[in-house]
Amino acid sequence: xxxxxxxxxxxxxxxxxxxxxxxxxxxxxxxxxxxxxxxxxxxxxxxxxxxxxxxxxxxxxxxxxxxxxxxxxxxxxxxxxxxxxxxxxxxxxxxxxxxxxxxxxxxxxxxxxxxxxxxxxxxxxxxxxxxxxxxxxxxxxxxxxxxxxxxxxxxxxxxxxxxxxxxxxxxxxxxxxxxxxxxxxxxxxxxxxxxxxxxxxxxxxxxxxxxx
Length: 212
What we know:
alpha/beta; Rossmann fold; six-stranded antiparallel β-sheet; four-stranded parallel β-sheet; 6 helices; elongated
């Protein structure tokens, strides 16, 4: 018996901005890039955007906003092109990332006018009962516990070790989570999926208790 888990079901969902790492080539100050990111992320439906909601800004706003599910968001703020998201998203937008800016937490990279300006570290604590719940489930016969996540390998590895999970697949886009689950379905007779959030509807619709 197997259980496939999404990171958001294990963490509190209380995202907090824990650090800002500025790129040496940033065309703007830390105060400016933080403001741009906050105004842009107001338009995002992704849970991580909550971390930016605590940043006080003026009445400015982002325009021409486009959000790509599971990747990031982009728009115009004060006449500047601003992009915020994971490394894959910025790479797709032809943004060269400063390789020195690698956080140990979940990260949001932000570029301004085509230049990597900063990397924000976002922290989300594990739920108080996460470890106990997984142990209880394991005692009930579900021994193979696998986590599918869009987070980095570093973040996924830390959570896996902390909670005693059996395996993880990291840096997955929403569609890749569905594909990963389908492959696991073929390998395991009894499998269930536990997920939440806007990026998991497809995977949840595939999950079921028991075999086919």
